[in-house]
Amino acid sequence: MEVVDAVSVHGNGKAEIEDFDISAVVQPEPLPPILAAENGDKQNGREIVLGKNVHTTCLEVTEPEANDEFTGDKEAYMASVLARYRKNLMERTKYHLGYPYNLDFDYGALGQLQHFSINNLGDPFIESNYGVHSRQFEVGVLDWFARLWEIEKNEYWGYITNCGTEGNLHGILVGREVLPDGVLYASRESHYSVFKAARMYRMDCEKVDCLISGEIDTADFKAKLLANKDKPAIINVNIGTTVKGAVDDLDLVIQTLEESGFSQDRFYIHCDGALFGLMMPFVKRAPKVTFKKPIGSVSVSGHKFVGCPMPCGVQITRMEHIDVLSRNVEYLASRDATIMGSRNGHAPIFLWYTLNRKGYKGFQKEVQKCLRNAHYLKDRLHDAGISAMLNELSSTVVFERPLDEEFVRRWQLACQGNIAHVVVMPSVTIEKLDDFLNELVEKRSTWYRDGGVQPPCIAADVGCENCACALHKLSILS
Ligand SMILES: Cc1ncc(COP(=O)(O)O)c(C=O)c1O
């Protein structure tokens, strides 16, 4: 019997926690059905439904009784919906491998703050008239990241964003404000938010080719820079690409700019560290991200490696750049230099809490564990004759897309074309990887049993040496 805490609200309005046998009333929810598309967009034979909102899993909102009081029935219904949802979350957390979220945390101590509407609207460094804020935590977290990226307290400006995307939108906007007629350069494997920024700000954008690893191809970068020599350059450098976890070589990017005749006042570099921004500082061989180099901004997601339970991120830029963006807002009694208006005031507290608990040493240990476990996964895939690639500085293991979509959804794998990936985060243990591998190997033996269908060749994505298709498998095993 599984016993969980259930909250019951009594007539006096007080909530109490009591033991509650969840399995007596709640069955795990099945996975949502695979959608059949009408007017679908076909990508690699898989349909994406466009222009069709799906309501099959919607939990309808029902109006309260006429007397405006909660009835016992409604309370019981809502409690059972929440209990079922919680059970579902527990189940889905067990089988998650594809997205770079660290699901291993304990923020029990922060439960007491849920009753407050904490909002850091405006500038983190200027108190607004709204007093229920967490700026003291926010600035503490920003100072920690400023130390990590080597910029003095009086030389940086930053804020806690809603996510890595907002960091990219902000970094690229600062770049555009500093160099208004700049061309945006980003490798093809950059996150879609970078190209969204180009569309939002109506910037000229050059997509730069990538190496097989997913790293920016600096030869193509140079050719594109030279073709636009008369315009300044705004560059998005990936500290971990979304699909292959490739880390662009920041030093080589700077060298390419210099060799192409771009002086430091004619380029602005934004480092998109959403994925590995907090991992690379602990990997010795990684190109160092530091404001001692001529970079303009760095952003990172807070809910990925750090393990914050709500989406958030950190954005740091140089103080000298921010004045071009900020405006005074009398209504706030503050300055507006962020993308959003209201800002989640809980997120800084979660970040502050986890940074305090883990510190540099704790993150370093976790990074080492992730890299070790990622190697384990890649090696075991190769041993089983499955195409797989792991970039040297990465914990993202790229492998052949499983044939069965049911399997993809069960393990919540992120896929693109013929490849899928597992992002090994601190919550991904060897046991979980073993369960996944055993299941994959067993399923493959049925998918490819009679030899009619063959595993795909993914040499173009991972290189011949990592491909175990019928044509390339010899090189992987030799
Ligand atoms: C390289 C990269 N940049 C930006 C983002 C966007 O981050 P977020 O999901 O926090 O908005 C992601 C998300 O996976 C990413 O992989």
TrEMBL record:
User: Does the entry feature the keyword DNA-binding, yes or no?
Assistant: no
Q: Which family does it belong to?
A: Belongs to the group II decarboxylase family.
| Coiled-coil intervals | none
What InterPro entries has UniProt attached to this entry? Group_II_Decarboxylase, PyrdxlP-dep_de-COase, PyrdxlP-dep_Trfase, PyrdxlP-dep_Trfase_major, PyrdxlP-dep_Trfase_small, Pyridoxal-P_BS
- Name the gene that codes for it: LOC105139459
Question: Its domain of life?
Answer: Eukaryota
What Gene Ontology terms for biological process does this UniProt record contain? carboxylic acid metabolic process
Q: What is this protein called?
A: Serine decarboxylase-like
Identify a single GO molecular function assigned to this protein: carboxy-lyase activity
Alphabetized, the UniProt keywords read: Decarboxylase, Lyase, Pyridoxal phosphate
Species:
Populus euphratica
According to its UniProt record, which reaction does this protein catalyse?
L-serine + H(+) = ethanolamine + CO2
* Residues recorded with modification N6-(pyridoxal phosphate)lysine: 304
PROSITE patterns in the cross-refs: DDC_GAD_HDC_YDC
Q: Which cofactors go with this protein?
A: pyridoxal 5'-phosphate
Spell out the SUPFAM superfamilies in the cross-references.
Answer: PLP-dependent transferases
